[in-house]
């Protein structure tokens, strides 16, 4: 009996997609979760999204929503507040994330106890408005996420600009650090914040041994030449177009579209034209 | 407004100062984002317009979006009221909290107040007052409410607000009015019932509102010109359209914001760009068509931010601002003409 019900749910909703008002199953044999409500003894979806089932619990994950974090996710965030021993970080989630002073790399060795002097100069590491890339470490009791930047790949961001897309458009990839051959680095935060910046060579990245706090927490940009700048703005425009057409971003897709753009454009501002964007999207959908 | 990091700020500034200058989205310095305009969006308003700058045509996301609407209200003139014989304009700007999610409600109030001050100090100036919003000398006049709502802000809100306000004011129709005088007719003296004893005499409120509606009642009552002063009330005659166009179509100014980064300036800043400039210069220009075509009128000037200008720098900026404003003015007018033509066509279908 139960097995039949489960199969019914699966079969009647191919792709597991649903829209508001659609009846999902009977409320007698299933429990309603987020994104659903009970009407006439039936579980009905209240949002458009994908159906998720954990044992007897049916919930719908909305397509357009704020970012719901999971441990291990890579996120890009912006400092909103400096508090005692912690920073508050806006990460496009329902509540601000928390970055503890104990979860950042401090000058003079990666692993050491935090001193009072560190507490006093927290703004020297991150101050309000600063952008950083971090990983979701854990959750607090109230559901707020705790971040950490205890890796050399994580930390403060510079040499580029931020693009914001709906979180659902960033899929989980093997690596969220993407280097495009046009001298541009991309950091795809799972929260929908994307950092587009000048490429930094691996060797130049601050090494584990010679951890240089000055360099890691610097606010000064490197010299960025004009071709790199236009490449950055081109990548930004591509992401804007893909967002407008609601196309999920992957590294291969971005690379392909970039190459197509270089081939077809006459000028950087072409990407701002609507028909050019549509031609680009048509090309992507034709190649699959 | 969400603050941006020092690195982002210097990235934007360095890009603008580079040669050739580069901006986040690849625009050059004095290029606007796409502007879209729609008039007559609020059916209950006398005139309305919705304007967006840089909105995504696909999903309608992003960009700055502003809604402006005008509403005419009858106002008494006399002691204790602010009403004027020539009518007056009141301007209010409100911001949707969704447009500024990072602002507290107090900060939002302050921002609204700032916007309102700048808008109303420019648009309610007596030199811009339209000639056809008076009703009865010394008795009643129209009070024109101009309400502007900022729905979303991704930079350059001032230009958007002024353009929307101009579009809404150009879209405004002032209802036709006729002055009415009451007098006791002879029948009242004879008859016992008071009802129907008052006879409405209908007059033309002003010579400009000449109409061929049934005024023969009035003519038979042998009124002379003196009755104008005796008019106590007015009525709205039924007529096929909503009224006549608000005067001053050629005058309502537009605003051009020059964002200044050291020696250079640029137009139509996005939110991060606005956060990284030290000062902005607002110039309110209009180019009345009735005077010689090259003549421009400067209706207001405002600096925002902490930067300073020298006089010579300012005069250069004024000149450049004028030429930009002229372009915007032309584009906006042609769009407004198009909208009017479209509406006329729709009306003719009936």
Automatic annotation (TrEMBL), chain A:
<dbReference type="GO" id="GO:0071035">
    <property type="term" value="P:nuclear polyadenylation-dependent rRNA catabolic process"/>
</dbReference>
<dbReference type="GO" id="GO:0034475">
    <property type="term" value="P:U4 snRNA 3'-end processing"/>
</dbReference>
<keyword id="KW-0698">rRNA processing</keyword>
<dbReference type="GO" id="GO:0000177">
    <property type="term" value="C:cytoplasmic exosome (RNase complex)"/>
</dbReference>
<dbReference type="InterPro" id="IPR026699">
    <property type="entry name" value="Exosome_RNA_bind1/RRP40/RRP4"/>
</dbReference>
<dbReference type="GO" id="GO:0071051">
    <property type="term" value="P:poly(A)-dependent snoRNA 3'-end processing"/>
</dbReference>
<keyword id="KW-0269">Exonuclease</keyword>
<dbReference type="Pfam" id="PF21266">
    <property type="entry name" value="S1_RRP4"/>
</dbReference>
<dbReference type="GO" id="GO:0004527">
    <property type="term" value="F:exonuclease activity"/>
</dbReference>
<keyword id="KW-0540">Nuclease</keyword>
<dbReference type="GO" id="GO:0071028">
    <property type="term" value="P:nuclear mRNA surveillance"/>
</dbReference>
<feature type="domain" description="RRP4 S1">
    <location>
        <begin position="66"/>
        <end position="137"/>
    </location>
</feature>
<feature type="domain" description="Exosome complex component N-terminal">
    <location>
        <begin position="17"/>
        <end position="54"/>
    </location>
</feature>
<comment type="similarity">
    <text>Belongs to the RRP4 family.</text>
</comment>
<keyword id="KW-0378">Hydrolase</keyword>
<keyword id="KW-0271">Exosome</keyword>
<feature type="domain" description="K Homology">
    <location>
        <begin position="160"/>
        <end position="200"/>
    </location>
</feature>
<dbReference type="InterPro" id="IPR025721">
    <property type="entry name" value="Exosome_cplx_N_dom"/>
</dbReference>
<dbReference type="InterPro" id="IPR048565">
    <property type="entry name" value="S1_RRP4"/>
</dbReference>
<dbReference type="InterPro" id="IPR012340">
    <property type="entry name" value="NA-bd_OB-fold"/>
</dbReference>
<protein>
    <submittedName>
        <fullName>Exosome complex exonuclease rrp4</fullName>
    </submittedName>
</protein>
<keyword id="KW-0539">Nucleus</keyword>
TrEMBL record, chain B:
<dbReference type="InterPro" id="IPR050590">
    <property type="entry name" value="Exosome_comp_Rrp42_subfam"/>
</dbReference>
<dbReference type="GO" id="GO:0035925">
    <property type="term" value="F:mRNA 3'-UTR AU-rich region binding"/>
</dbReference>
<dbReference type="InterPro" id="IPR027408">
    <property type="entry name" value="PNPase/RNase_PH_dom_sf"/>
</dbReference>
<keyword id="KW-0689">Ribosomal protein</keyword>
<dbReference type="GO" id="GO:0071028">
    <property type="term" value="P:nuclear mRNA surveillance"/>
</dbReference>
<protein>
    <recommendedName>
        <fullName>Ribosomal RNA-processing protein 42</fullName>
    </recommendedName>
</protein>
<dbReference type="GO" id="GO:0000176">
    <property type="term" value="C:nuclear exosome (RNase complex)"/>
</dbReference>
<dbReference type="GO" id="GO:0071035">
    <property type="term" value="P:nuclear polyadenylation-dependent rRNA catabolic process"/>
</dbReference>
<dbReference type="GO" id="GO:0005840">
    <property type="term" value="C:ribosome"/>
</dbReference>
<dbReference type="InterPro" id="IPR001247">
    <property type="entry name" value="ExoRNase_PH_dom1"/>
</dbReference>
<keyword id="KW-0687">Ribonucleoprotein</keyword>
<keyword id="KW-0271">Exosome</keyword>
<keyword id="KW-0963">Cytoplasm</keyword>
<dbReference type="Pfam" id="PF01138">
    <property type="entry name" value="RNase_PH"/>
</dbReference>
<dbReference type="InterPro" id="IPR036345">
    <property type="entry name" value="ExoRNase_PH_dom2_sf"/>
</dbReference>
<dbReference type="GO" id="GO:0005730">
    <property type="term" value="C:nucleolus"/>
</dbReference>
<dbReference type="GO" id="GO:0034476">
    <property type="term" value="P:U5 snRNA 3'-end processing"/>
</dbReference>
<dbReference type="GO" id="GO:0016075">
    <property type="term" value="P:rRNA catabolic process"/>
</dbReference>
<dbReference type="InterPro" id="IPR020568">
    <property type="entry name" value="Ribosomal_Su5_D2-typ_SF"/>
</dbReference>
<dbReference type="GO" id="GO:0071038">
    <property type="term" value="P:TRAMP-dependent tRNA surveillance pathway"/>
</dbReference>
<comment type="similarity">
    <text>Belongs to the RNase PH family.</text>
</comment>
<dbReference type="GO" id="GO:0000467">
    <property type="term" value="P:exonucleolytic trimming to generate mature 3'-end of 5.8S rRNA from tricistronic rRNA transcript (SSU-rRNA, 5.8S rRNA, LSU-rRNA)"/>
</dbReference>
């Amino acid at each position: 009996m139960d097995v039949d019900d489960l199969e019914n749910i699966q079969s009647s909703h191919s792709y597991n997609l649903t829209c508001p008002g659609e009846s999902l199953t009977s409320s007698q044999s299933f429990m309603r979760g987020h994104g659903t409500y009970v009407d006439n003894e039936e579980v009905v979806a209240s949002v458009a999204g994908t159906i998720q089932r954990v044992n007897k619990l049916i919930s719908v994950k909305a397509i357009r929503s704020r970012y719901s974090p999971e441990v291990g996710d890579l996120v890009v965030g912006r400092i909103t507040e400096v508090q005692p021993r912690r920073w508050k970080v806006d990460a496009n989630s329902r509540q601000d994330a928390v970055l503890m002073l104990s979860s950042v790399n401090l000058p003079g060795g990666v692993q050491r106890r935090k001193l009072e002097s560190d507490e006093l100069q927290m703004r020297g590491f991150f101050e309000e408005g600063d952008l950083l890339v971090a990983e979701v470490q854990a959750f607090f009791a109230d559901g707020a996420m705790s971040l950490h930047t205890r890796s050399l790949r994580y930390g403060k961001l510079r040499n580029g600009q931020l693009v914001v897309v709906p979180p659902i458009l960033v899929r989980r990839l093997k690596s969220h650090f993407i280097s495009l051959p046009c001298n541009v680095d991309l950091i795809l935060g799972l929260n929908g914040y994307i950092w587009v910046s000048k490429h930094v060579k691996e060797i130049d990245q601050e090494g584990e041994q010679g951890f240089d706090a000055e360099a890691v927490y610097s606010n000064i940009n490197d010299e960025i030449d004009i071709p790199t700048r236009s490449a950055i703005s081109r990548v930004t425009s591509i992401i804007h177009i893909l967002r407008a057409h609601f196309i999920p971003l992957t590294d291969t897709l971005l690379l392909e579209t970039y190459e197509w753009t270089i081939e077809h454009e006459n000028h950087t501002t072409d990407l701002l034209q609507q028909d050019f964007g549509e031609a680009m999207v048509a090309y992507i959908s034709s190649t699959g | 407004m969400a603050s941006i990091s020092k690195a982002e700020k210097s990235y934007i500034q360095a890009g603008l100062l580079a040669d050739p200058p580069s901006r986040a989205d690849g625009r050059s310095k004095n290029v606007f984002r796409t502007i879209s305009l729609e008039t007559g969006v609020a059916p209950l308003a006398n005139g309305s317009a919705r304007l967006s700058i840089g909105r995504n045509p696909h999903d309608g996301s992003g960009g700055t979006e502003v809604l402006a609407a005008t509403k005419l209200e009858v106002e008494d003139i006399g002691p204790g009221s602010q009403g004027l014989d020539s009518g007056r304009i009141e301007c209010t700007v409100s911001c949707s909290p969704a447009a500024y999610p990072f602002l507290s409600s107090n900060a939002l109030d302050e921002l609204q107040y700032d916007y309102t001050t700048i808008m109303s100090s420019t648009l309610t100036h007596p030199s811009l007052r339209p000639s056809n919003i008076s009703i009865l000398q010394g008795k009643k006049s129209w009070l024109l409410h101009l309400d502007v709502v900022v729905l979303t802000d991704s930079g350059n809100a001032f230009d958007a607000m002024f353009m929307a306000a101009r579009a809404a004011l150009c879209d405004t129709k002032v209802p036709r009015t006729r002055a009415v005088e009451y007098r006791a007719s002879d029948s009242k003296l004879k008859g016992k019932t008071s009802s129907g004893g008052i006879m409405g005499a209908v007059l033309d409120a002003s010579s400009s509102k000449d109409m061929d509606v049934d005024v023969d009642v009035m003519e038979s009552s042998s009124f002379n010109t003196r009755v104008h002063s005796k008019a106590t009330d007015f009525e709205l005659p039924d007529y096929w359209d909503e009224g006549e166009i608000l005067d001053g179509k050629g005058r309502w100014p537009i605003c051009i914001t020059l964002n200044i980064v050291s020696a250079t300036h640029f137009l139509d800043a996005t939110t991060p760009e606005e956060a990284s400039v030290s000062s902005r210069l607002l110039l309110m220009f209009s180019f009345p068509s009735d005077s010689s075509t090259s003549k421009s009128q400067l209706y207001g000037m405002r600096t925002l931010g902490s930067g300073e200008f020298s006089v010579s720098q300012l005069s250069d900026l004024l000149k450049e601002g004028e030429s930009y404003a002229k372009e915007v003015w032309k584009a906006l007018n042609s769009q407004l003409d198009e909208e009017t033509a479209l509406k006329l066509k729709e009306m003719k279908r009936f």
